Amino acid sequence: MKQVSLQPTERIDDLLTYDLKIIQSDEVFSFSMDAVLLGRFSSVPPKGRIVDLCTGNGVVPLLLSTRTRAEIWGVEIQERLADMAVRNAEINDLSERLHMVQGDLKTIHKTLGHGQFDAVTVNPPYLPVPNGEQNSNAHFAAARHEIHCTLEDVIAASAKLVKAGGKVAMVHRATRLVDIICLMRQYRIEPKRIRYVHARAGEEAMMVLIEGMKDGKPEIRTLPPLIVYTEKEEYCQELKDIYYGGRSALEFS
């Protein structure tokens, strides 16, 4: 592991899978299961170019690097998180393949180019900006709420960056599924695969993983649901495989 400088509140955590390490801090939003699932669900080319929007501290590019030899860009608007993403690439000796950029996804196509990517991944903020009081921590507020970008901004940006026939994969709240599908079609991204994530059997879906193809033909596959916890309140075997680098149905579905 390469040595990098840490800010006073930062620590280096074990990402568990493939011996990856990740810099995190309680002052900013840490990665969650959403990002891990997206990193395994998304279709990735064996080589080429991938861009991850709303990359945060770069966890999704780190995970994708274990599945492909493609070059991967991460785009993050918050300076603090973008800096952490750069150093996360460095400590894992991945700086030659992982390129972390501070920028606004609404205009990043002007820098990275139109239709230059084989795949786009994104774990966007889930909630509309609330009326009234917001979280006093600006990093937490931006991670949870559509302060810097709306769902439409995210899908419009993805459509500009991905090439025809390329894939766009997203994780979001299941309650936003209709909005996601409508906006994907509006921007010529045809939904092709969908998978619901449930905390427990018998409970409604809490998340949805969805992937579309730019200028694809209409047809969608609904994959088996992922049930996170067993009856013993343990992670299911599939999730254990994901976290510890095993062969996963999410990765190969």
Low-confidence parts lasting 5 or more residues at pLDDT below 50?
Answer: 247-253
Sheet-strand content, in percent, reads 25-35%
Rg of Cα set? 17 Å
Structural class: alpha/beta
* Helicity, as a percent range: 25-40%
Mean of the pLDDT scores? 89
Distance between the ends: 32 Å
Counted by DSSP, the helix tally is 9
- H/E topology pattern: EEHEHEHEHEHHEHEEEEHH
Kindly summarize this structure in a few lines.
With 253 residues, the chain is an alpha/beta fold.
Report on the architecture of this protein.
The chain is of the alpha/beta class. The protein contains nine helices and eleven strands. β3 (49-53), α2 and β4 (71-76) form a beta-alpha-beta unit. α6 (151-161) runs parallel beside α7 (177-186). Residues 247-253 have low confidence and may be disordered.
Provide key terms for this protein:
single chain, 253 residues, nine-stranded mixed β-sheet, two-stranded antiparallel ribbon, 9 helices, 11 strands, SAM-dependent_MTases_sf, Methyltransferase
Write the layout of secondary structure elements.
Elements: E1 10-14, E2 21-25, H1 33-41, E3 49-53, H2 59-64, E4 71-76, H3 79-91, E5 98-102, H4 109-112, E6 117-122, H5 138-144, H6 151-161, E7 162-173, H7 177-186, E8 189-198, E9 207-214, E10 221-222, E11 226-227, H8 237-243, H9 249-252
